[in-house]
Give the backbone structure.
Amino acid sequence: MKNINNQNRLNSIWTKSLARNLHPNGNALVDHLKTIHQENTGFTEACASSCRDEAGRNSYEWLSEVVPDNASLCVLDLACGSGPLLKILFDRNKNLNLKGIDMCPEELVLAKTRLKNSGINLIESKAQNLTAINDNSIDIVLCHWALTLMDPIVPVLDEIKRVLTSEGQFAALVDGPMNVASGYAEVHDLIYSYVQEEIPCYGEIDLGDPRIRGSESLSNLAHKAFPEASVTIETNVVSMEGPVTKVAEIASGFFYAAFILKPEKRKLMIKNLSNMLAISKVSKDNERQGRFSMPISRLLVRQSIKSIK
Ligand SMILES: C[S@@+](CC[C@H](N)C(=O)[O-])C[C@H]1O[C@@H](n2cnc3c(N)ncnc32)[C@H](O)[C@@H]1O
């Protein structure tokens, strides 16, 4: 992870539009996300791999379970970022034909370094336009923590449908319902209260298409894009414990909103978040410990009841 405490205030076309109470368009969203990922390359992986569910799995491992172990399938990681999910799949089964797509070149550089000599095809492209991928050529499309960021979303789902084989599957890891992880809504509200001091309508207008954020609207969207498919959404919770300031830094990394804060405001937010996340347990070296829990959901779209083997 490079520079999660960026010293410059984030000022993208997206935040400028929001500050003027305007609804930013898709290009402004792309510019905003690229700016955050350019300045904080690899932050998602640093946060997501730190949190585990009750069975000991992080969210990459939970999503990767959709891919059977012993098959030689073609799998596309859509919005692969720095490539942690591809690495898990590659280490597990060398017979997979793996591809990764992302629109952020800095994240792809990290992915290329980590996956050197793997033969995995990494492509810079937007998810709305997967011209590098042939029709009916992919068995499984995975998307870890990125569907929530995509707007427009319908062309993305249409592209996924186009590239999948007729028995193909699409699985995505997205935020889960706030109320399933204890204390999560309070963390969300605290971070957003700081952000809204700078940009009052942040939250009312947020990244991506709001339909991805609710289970029912997500399910409706998936049914519409894949009318013949079975659609399921499972919920899980991942958590972490550790020195409380580190826990607060990692927790805030799950919220893109936190990246727009000015450094001094961000420091204050982390201090208050640390107080919120502190638990009574104290480590051997007397450092205050903290705990953070995050709700996650796994969307699974199966185009055929015959399972992929
Ligand atoms: C939260 S990160 C997740 C990265 C990776 N999947 C992971 O979980 O480590 C979101 C990623 O989505 C990518 N992304 C967002 N919108 C995209 C779009 N429309 N097309 C392609 N990539 C996109 C960003 O560049 C970023 O790398």
Q: What stands out?
A: Residues 1-6 have pLDDT under 50 and may be disordered.
